[in-house]
Specification:
Hydantoin permease; binds tryptophan; mainly alpha
């Protein structure tokens, strides 16, 4: 049987947008903008996305399409001994998935709570064993999607969920902008403070957010590219990057007006989504409906991202060990659920932690921040330095000056920026 392919370029682009648009766009990006110089932050962010994130995405697509296989086998076909590096990338993305799924399951839980009009306080929720039930439930949703295959699972889910997500987002933005807190919210979100551009930490925050948000450097895009036949990779990657950025920017236009309307302080990360926003929704008019819509949208975003992460190890087990898809999915799913268990339990009454840090937060730092950068480095070095140049050129439309500029970006700029981000992430912890 030949390798499965996307049904069309549109299907491929939608699935990739599904991967890119995730929790990172909706709750992480707006907050990072608000606390790193507002509108001014868009400058380093745009630079990061188009100069560094996008080239890495194109490289991954090119490796995937050229080798027609997933991470480990692709690396192996570049140099035999690189399979180890491939396994490292697969391990990192699997570990990221193990805790990303925990957050996805909380989102699902809150979507259900608001749909039934009974929001639960976050502490009460995590103290119960309800999170475990939802962990299993959302794991099963991701599992079922990947098990159905590239066209019938991954592509189909994205074709339905991405348009729904965009419609919900537009409805929520339209509503938020008519609320009394809108002017203050937008002032907090976007008032530019250009002095922050002199702060290196702002730049590393922009780099990190761009790589995370575009899902690049982790083999996701390589694997998706391996199901691709033809088409201009730069064009597809640009559509994906622009869509990813627009959705992130729009998310801020819905979040901050609501937070300021309820007279609350904008919080960071987990607290913004599960503490601040739920209390916003219990206070404002139509709150239950808005809450249900918001968490349904967030679940759609998280599900399509989790699916893309699961596809990386699943495709690896299929390509490198010859397992059929169903058996590969079951095996990987079981491993991921076990790996995720400590994170899933870390906020419950059991309070699993290591060195006093909840497992989930620790995973987010070790795998989602440091691991992500390390994997990106591996990807850019293996692809940029060791893959035959002629083969890359063949995938990106020739060897003209544009391609030469591109190679400089991939070989020198992207690894340099990743190294700087790595140092920045260590300093943030030390500081
Ligand atoms: N991009 C997604 C988000 O913004 C997260 C994500 C999906 C991801 N796949 C990834 C991050 C692979 C790193 C690697 O939420």
């Amino acid at each position: 049987m030949g390798r499965e392919k996307w049904s069309s370029t549109t299907g491929f682009i939608l699935a990739s947008i599904g991967s890119a648009v995730g929790i990172g766009n909706i709750w992480r990006f707006p907050y990072i903008v608000g606390s790193n110089g507002g509108g001014a932050f868009l400058i380093p962010y745009l630079i990061s996305v188009f100069l560094f994130g996008l080239p890495l995405m194109v490289l991954e697509f090119a490796i995937g399409r050229r080798t027609g296989t997933s991470v480990v086998a692709a690396f192996q076909s570049i140099r035999k001994r690189f399979s180890v590096a491939g396994f490292a990338v697969v391990a990192i993305v699997s570990l990221i998935l193990s805790y990303y799924l925990v957050i996805t399951s909380w989102v699902l839980a809150y979507a259900c709570f608001f749909t039934f009009g009974r929001p639960m306080e976050f502490g009460a929720f995590t103290d119960s064993y309800l999170p475990l039930a939802f962990f299993l439930l959302s794991g099963l949703a991701v599992f079922a999607t990947v098990r159905s295959g590239v066209r019938e699972g991954i592509e189909k889910v994205a074709r339905y969920l991405i348009p729904i997500l965009v419609v919900i987002l537009l409805v929520l933005v339209a509503f938020s902008l008519t609320e009394p807190g809108a002017p203050d919210g937008i002032r907090f979100y976007l008032s530019p403070d250009y002095s922050t551009l002199a702060d290196p930490a702002v730049w590393t925050a922009a780099f990190g957010q761009a790589f995370f948000s575009l899902s690049v450097g982790m083999g996701v895009m390589l694997t998706y590219g391996s199901y691709l036949e033809k088409g201009n990779l730069f064009r597809s990657a640009s559509v994906i990057a622009v869509a990813d950025m627009l959705i992130a920017i729009l998310a801020g236009f819905m979040i901050f007006p609501l937070v300021f309307t309820a007279g609350l302080d904008p919080a960071a990360g987990v607290n913004l989504a599960f503490v601040t926003l739920p209390s916003v929704f219990t206070e404002i008019r139509f709150g239950m409906v808005l809450g249900a819509l918001f968490f349904a949208m967030l679940f759609a975003a998280a599900l399509t991202s989790a699916v893309s992460m699961l596809e990386v190890p699943v495709a690896t087990v299929m390509d490198s060990y010859g397992y059929p898809r169903r058996r590969a999915t079951l095996l990987v799913f079981a491993v991921i659920m076990l790996l995720g268990l400590p994170s899933a339990l870390s906020y419950t009454a059991l309070e699993l932690d290591l060195f006093g840090i909840p497992f989930l937060d620790l995973s987010d730092y070790v795998f989602g921040t440091v691991g992500l950068i390390v994997a990106g480095l591996i990807m850019s070095i293996v692809g940029g330095w060791f893959m035959d140049r002629a083969r890359i050129c063949g995938e990106i439309g020739g060897c003209g000056w544009q391609q030469r500029v591109y190679m400089v970006l991939i070989r020198y700029c992207v690894p340099a920026v990743l190294l700087i981000t790595l140092v920045g992430s260590f300093l943030r912890v030390a500081g």
